[in-house]
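Data card: per-record layout.
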Amino acid sequence: MEPAVSLAVCALLFLLWVRLKGLEFVLIHQRWVFVCLFLLPLSLIFDIYYYVRAWVVFKLSSAPRLHEQRVRDIQKQVREWKEQGSKTFMCTGRPGWLTVSLRVGKYKKTHKNIMINLMDILEVDTKKQFRIL
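The structure for this 133-residue chain is written out next.
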């Protein structure tokens, strides 16, 4: 109970200090207070949420037994692209916010997007074949 009381007292003192100095002053001149008391805990909560979400999505989406169906779906998309005359380049249909690059993927709007579920792919070998779990 003692840590909870001391935390409550610290929070109360902080709120009084902000009230006295003003929120703008605290955010501009005492950023460490804002970072330590708000951003770091929120970041930790977000990291835990995202880890649990990624684990659930992986467990629900991972299905190596659907490999043949997924390959047929990709082949169908490539055939449609060829039937349309192969006028544009192809790229993966993964949304831009999932990419590692900081470059804005404007090419996604002009290229043929091929939707590929990369959940079960471990690596691509030198022959450009996918290895599935």
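Known properties of this structure: DSSP finds five helices and four strands in the chain. Residues 63-114 form one domain.

See the next section for split statistics.
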